[in-house]
Each structure stands twice: as C-alpha cells, then as structure tokens.
Input
Amino acid sequence: MKVLKECGITDPPIDLLTITAKHGLEYQEVDYFEDDVDAMIIKLDGRVIAAVNSNSSLNRRRFSLAHELCHHLYHQDRSALIDNVSVDFPEEDAYGESAKDPFETEADVFAGELLVPLPMLKKHFRPGYTTADIARIFSVSESVASIAVTSHFDALFK
Output
C-alpha cells in the first residue's frame, strides 16, 4: 500500500510503469529469454533494468515485473549477481529437491498484494463475481485473483 500511495495509484489495474519509473527501475521486454525465464534485474551502465520475457502473457509479464520490483526495493543486498545480472537460484532441501528461496516467496507475495491490494479488492468485489471477473478488473491471471480472494476471504465476506 505504501508503494501505491507514493505513486498516487487508487484504482486497478495497477500502473506498474509509474511505480517502476518512480523507483528508478527501467522496464524492457525482451524476446531472447528461454521459456523458463520470466524476468531478471540487469545492472548496466548505472541503469537498473527489469527485463521481462515478451513471450509470456500480459498477465505473466505484469506479475514478473511486480516480482522483480520487490527484489529491486527490498532484496538488493541479497541478490546473487553474476556480471551485474540478478539470478534466482533454487535452493535444495535435505533430500536434494528444489525448494523455493524465501526471498522468492516474499517477491511472489509482494507481487500479488501489489497487483490486487485488499482495499481495492474490497472496493471492486461484488457478490457473484468469479475469479475471472477479478482477474479482468485487476489485469492479473485467474490464479493471482484466486489467491487474492482466498487470502482475503474473511475481509470480503464478513
């Protein structure tokens, strides 16, 4: 909510370009990422760029940018940098299985809350709305909309 308030954003869909510009993060869509790479932060010539895979859906690109914004705002000192590129490395648990890094989980939660903030969800939610309706209003995937409604179920239905 602090990020939205700083940028004067009061209605969905969230204008991520205004937010990234205010926080010194340039946005670029690129078409040369592998399919399993959604986005990354690149530091180049004094610039900080959120490079997002242009082959992803619009909703995925928005989520990926919001995710990278979290890393830019809160994880700068924790990002693994290889040649000035922030790379997310999956950790392994005791059984050698890939486990999600807590900073990645935090960036996912941040992205969901930024794209579908509770005050706006409460303002625009109506009885009978489906996750598709919420997804359309907030320009997010149905999965992100479903998580938002589920996470804030009590606030919406009490």
Summary: The longest strand covers residues 47-53. Helices lie at 2-7, 16-22, 58-74, 102-115, 118-124, 131-138, 142-151, 153-157. The CA atoms of residues 15 and 153 lie 25 Å apart.
